[in-house]
Amino acid sequence: MAPTSLERRVERLEQIVQELRSESLHGARRRDWRATIGAFSEDPVAKEIIDEALQLRESERRQSRE
């Protein structure tokens, strides 16, 4: 591989990394986990899953006390 080709590839990779860093720094604040709060509050299936998980946790708590 010619050195000029390698240099171009490295420059391109550095450019891509810089773009990705820029996107993650600017976009992460808008798309973090807090954006999902309440997303499933009206979903009956999600409510059922949460209720069953809470029941399971409570039964495991009781078992651990025995």
Which terms summarize this structure?
66 residues, 2 helices, mainly alpha
How would you summarize what this structure contains?
The chain is mainly α.
Quote the distance from N terminus to C terminus.
Answer: 69 Å
Uncertain residue ranges: none
Secondary-structure content class: mainly alpha
Shape: elongated
**What's the quaternary structure here?**
single chain
Percent range for β-strand residues: under 5%
Number of helices: 2
Number of strands: 0
C-alpha Rg (nearest Å): 24 Å
Q: Write the element-wise H/E pattern from the N-terminal end onward.
A: HH
What profile does the largest beta sheet have?
A: none
Instruction: Please tell me the total number of domains.
Output: 2
Q: Helix content range of the residues, please?
A: over 70%
What do you see in this structure?
This protein is mainly alpha-helical. The protein has helices spanning 3-27, 44-65. The chain folds into two domains: 1-31; 40-66. It is 71% helix and 0% strand. The mean pLDDT is 85.
Helices and strands in order:
Blueprint: H1 3-27, H2 44-65
